[in-house]
Amino acid sequence: MEIWNALANGIKSVDKNHLMTFHPMGGNSSSKWFNNQEWLDFNMMQTGHGERSYAAYKKLLIPDYQRKPVKPTFDGEPRYEDHPHDWKPEILGWFDDADVRQAAYWNLFSGGFGHTYGCHAIWQMLTPERAPVGFGRHTWQLDLDLPGAFDMLNLRRLMESRPMTERIPFQELITNDYMPETDYIVASKGENYAFVYLPTGWTASLDLERLGWEESVVWWFNPRTGKATKLKEIMNKGIQSFSPEKGGRGNDWILVLDDKNAGWEAPGKIK
Question: pTM for this one?
Answer without folding.
Answer: 0.96
